[in-house]
Amino acid sequence: MKTYKLSSDSEFAQEFFDSVPTGNWVNTSTNQAYLAWLAEGNTPEPADIPPVVIPDISMRQARLALLADGLLDDVEAALSTPEYKIWWEYSTIVERSNYLVNDVLKILGKSDEEIDQMFIGASQL
Questions:
Q1: pLDDT tens column, 69-121
Q2: Whether this model's pTM surpasses 0.70
Q3: How far apart are CA 113 and CA 36, in angstroms?
Q4: Are 123 and 86 in contact (CB under 8 A)?
Q5: What is the DSSP string of the chain?
Q6: Buried-state track 19-46, b at ≥16 Cβ within 10 A, e below 16
Q7: Cα-flanking dihedrals φ and ψ of residue 121, to 5°?
Q8: Cα dihedral: 97, 100, 106, 107 (round 10)
Q9: Are 124 and 88 in contact (CB under 8 A)?
Q10: Phi and psi at residue 95, in whole multiples of 5°?
Q11: Residue 76: phi, psi to the nearest 5?
Q12: 20-27 and 12-17: which strand pairing?
């Protein structure tokens, strides 16, 4: 069965057959097969919602979030180099893209998705 999934701007739709992408993208305003499919009463799948990315949080938010998750002592213990310690003690913001953030949290076994969720939660503190 043929289905379509819209692009983020809804100008194009990706074609699927039995839930498998065919590799075809069609213009949603001019492609006759797509327009006929719509006329039959079909509805395309909505576009994927891009993930929320929080680019940075305050150091206060970071420490409160880590404390709430029981990770504050673990993070402070993982700060083994002078560079890490200076960053931790003197930064006013924590940037999601900072390699030190990824290094420390990966040492604690956190995935990129878990780190993103930590930033989302911390941004609300």
A1: 999 998 888 888 898 889 899 999 999 999 888 888 888 888 888 888 999 99
A2: no
A3: 40
A4: no
A5: -EEEEE-TTSSEEEEEETTEEEEEEEETTT-HHHHHHHHTT--PBPPPPPPP---EEEHHHHHHHHHHTT-HHHHHHH--SHHHHHHHHH-SEEETT-HHHHHHHHHTT--HHHHHHHHHHHHT-
A6: eeeeeebbebeebeebeebeeeeeebee
A7: -65, -45
A8: 180
A9: no
A10: -90, 130
A11: -60, -35
A12: antiparallel
Cβ–Cβ < 8 Å for 8, 50: yes
Separation of alpha carbons 115 and 105, rounded Å = 7
pLDDT greater than 80 at residue 3: yes
